[in-house]
Amino acid sequence: MKGKNSLLTALFVTALGMAQVQAAEPSVEPRIIGGSTVNHSTVPYQVALVSSGRQFCGGTLISPQWVLTAAHCVERSSAGSVQIRIGASDLRTSQGETHQVSRIYVHENWTGSLANGNDIALLRLSSNVSSAYTPAKLPTPQIKASLAAPGQSLKVSGWGRTSRNSNAGSPVLKATDLEVVTNSECTSLMNGISVSGAYICGYDRSSTSCNGDSGGPWVARSGSDYYVFGAVSWGLENCTSATAFTDVTDYVSWITQKSGITPDGGGTTPPPPPPPADECAGVGQWDPYKFYYVGDRAVVNGFLFESNYNQWGYNPYYDYWGIWSFIKTCN
């Protein structure tokens, strides 16, 4: 599941054969099949992750400067290549705001395997979003027991694909409600694939509606407050199973350590950032005979570039096709 390029093109539509489910790796399958079109004001914490002008994952605004998402969305991304959009009900319009990501924090124990959990990441923004948008609060175990116990319904939202017969995403924001189910029931619904305690599961018993964009929010509302309990992680490709969300409650201490944000909306002053590293250090000169993957970097004539595609032979200095992105001038 490595690589932003895969997210942008195939959206990880890996089928799991019935005879292989015990040993199979869970698949990332972003979609809102059976959901309803909603205005962004219904989910004012909803964020779209964008790279090269294309939306590739979802996220949850948890403070004016921080976004929660899934590790598999950004594990090979550089901060300079990712922006967030908030306030857009329709991605084809100029609605809302766009903010550059200044720092990406992927959980240190994320291995690239969904089966092992830790599918969580934080994005620090270079500027605060406006007060027109409402961050979702982090839950405590007590709040989880009150609002996200088995049998209760939470709202999932995003721009994922809307039909089992098409990989095309929806340009308009959609949402649906999923009921919390126990992990043992979730394992059964996942055709026997074990669902660890790192996840919390949702299921629609009345239809085959299923999840939203990878990394997107699963949220409960209480009065004027929103609490994020899950970040969309994985599900079976056929969209007839449950959806596994990273259990945010289990990662609150990690979120607080990285961002300074505490449960129930407290302490949003982040710790001071570490001194910036020299991004050019250790990056080799561009080699016309080397194959470059998405996210690989090269230096040409004192300038640092990052590859947007899996490719070789394209000189970044004379790039007229958007194969490379300029990052910075090296000292």
Automatic annotation (TrEMBL):
Single GO BP term: proteolysis
Keywords in alphabetical order: Disulfide bond, Hydrolase, Protease, Serine protease, Signal
Protein's UniProt keywords contain Signal: yes
Superkingdom field: Bacteria
Gene Ontology MF annotations: serine-type endopeptidase activity
Residues covered by the Peptidase S1 domain: 32-260
Coiled-coil ranges per UniProt: none
PANTHER family: AT26814P-RELATED, POLYSERASE-RELATED
Protein name according to UniProt: Peptidase, trypsin-like serine and cysteine
